[in-house]
Structure formats: C-alpha cells, structure tokens
Amino acid sequence: MGWLRRGPKRDGEDAPRDPEFAYFSEREAALFRGRVRSTFAELGLEVSVYADHVVDDRKRRFGLGNLAAVCHQDRRGTRVWPELIHRHVDLVVRAMEGPSALETLPPEQIRAQLYPRVVSGDGIDAGAFGYARTVAPGLYEVLALDLPESVMMLTDEALDRLGDHAQLRDRALRNLRGLPVEEHETVRDADGMCFEIILGDSFYTASRVLDLDGVARRVTGLPLGEHGALVAMPFRHQLAFHPIRDTSIIPALGAMASFAASGYEDTPGAISPYVFWWRGGTLTQLSEHDEERGDLRIVVGDDFQELLERLIAQGPDHR
Which residues are CB-contacts of 54 (< 8 A; sequence separation ≥ 6)? Predict the structure, then answer.
C-alpha cells in the first residue's frame, strides 16, 4: 500500500545519524545544509545555518523541517536535492522580497482564497498566531491564504487588517467545504478491518477534519452517527476516518494508530502521529508514544471505554 512506502535508500542505518533530522546521516545532513546555504547565497541572501533553520542578516528565520523531509522522501536520492532546494528557496525569497498578496489582491479575492488549516503547534509562533483555535492537544486551526505558488498562514496582524475574525473563519470553512475530494481509498483486510482515506495534493486535505461529517457523506453516502468516528491526519495530504457503528472499531483503532504513526514520520507538512475520536467536532486523542517501550499504545478515557462496552454488548454489525 502507498502509505507504507519506504524512503529512498542512501547511507546505511549504521552510518552516524544527524541529531536533528535522524533520517539523514551526518554526511547527508552536511550536504543538505551546505546546499541550503549556497542556494540562499546564489539568490542574494547570506544566512546563518542552524540545525533546523536558517537566519538572514535581518533576523528573519526560515525553518528547514519540511524541506528536509521533501529531500528525504524523494526516491531519486541526493542527486536531485539541488533542484528541490533551489525551487523551495526561490519561492521563499520571492515571496519575502516581493509585495505581499494582502496588499495587491482585492479584498473579495482574498476571502475567496481563504482556508482553515490544521497544523501542529511546532509549526507556528504562538506570539504571532494568538487567534489560533485549539483543535486537539498540540494541534491548532489557523487561517491561510491560498496562492498560486505558496500558502500564506495569516498572523494576528494580517487578520486584523482583513476584518472580523469570526466572519473570516466562516468564509474559510465554506471555501473548504467546496473543495473536491481528489482521491478516496478504502483500506480493508480479510478480518474485517477497514477505514477510509482521503488523499490529495491540496494543502488542506487533512484540514477537512473540520468538515468530517460532510466529507463522510460525500465518500460513503452516509452521515456519521451519534458515536462519531475514528480519525487520523498524519500529514497535510492525508485524512483517514472510520465511522463508529459497531465492534469493527476495535481492529480499525489499531490499524489507524499504525497508519498515523507511519504517515507522520519524515513527511513534509507533518501534523500528528496519533489517532483521535471525533465526536460532534471535538477530538479526543486515543493513541500516544510510550516513552519507556519506544512504541505506540492505545489510551482511552471513561467515555470511550463506555462506548466500547456498549458496542460489544450490542454485538457485531449492528446498524
């Protein structure tokens, strides 16, 4: 299956690993950071390179996590890294040095291109995104302006210039609901485990968890019931869910926990390695990393435990 794909083979696992990007060997990490620095220089910016970011002489900070993951995931290996890095850095520099889209686009066009994004708290500056809404522990909803070559996540300052935050969010959610479902797969095995996956090039695919009931209706023909659904959003281009109706939730929970952890690892736009219980728009985390054993474990509270017991009592395949 595509979501279990392995990364490209490069230096062996026995080579010393980079402390920040463990999927790189020390040699590969030095090659990556050196190419990033030289690419910025070619485009007229001298930067100081740190483990996971660079800083230019005007103290502007640029993260390297997504770019490193893009390079790591490309099966063609290190020979294409210069091309990938140049494309990314060129977009960053042009967006930074050119006029802001907020200044050049008409207000109605800006509103038509607004979307909500669910992001990890690691990817945003809390001081600049004070309006961000908590979706789940460590996950936040922010507003983004979709542009032809990039996505601009809007800060408090940017939103204040656009108008009322609540009205802007409502418009962004309407825009999200209007997006097409690019690709849909049903994952199942012989033992009855199954869950749905939405995939797409859109940066807002995983963020459709904010409209999960609508997405479920579109791809399965049925609304989510009173018990809600299991859901996972490992990175920005994938959303998985399993409507909770009967005891099929039990194998689905374990499979989706593995799916989320696998999809999250070493991917650009990573969101969460965990599976959640979606109920009426509220997300409750159901898996976590076991620090002692070094693997995943399922964790359930009283409400979810009670739900499991009721589903077991009513028997399989109850509708």
Answer: 36, 37, 40, 47, 48, 61, 62, 64
pLDDT in tens, the chain (319 residues): 444 444 445 788 888 999 999 999 999 999 999 999 999 999 889 999 999 999 988 888 888 999 999 999 898 999 999 999 999 999 888 877 777 888 889 999 999 999 999 999 887 887 889 999 999 999 999 999 999 888 899 999 888 888 899 999 999 999 999 999 999 999 999 888 999 999 999 999 999 999 999 999 999 999 999 999 999 999 999 999 999 999 999 999 999 999 999 999 878 899 999 999 999 999 999 998 876 676 788 998 999 999 999 999 887 655 5
pTM, two decimal places: 0.82
On whether the CB atoms of residues 118 and 206 are closer than 8 A, the answer is yes
CB 237 within 8 A of CB 204: no
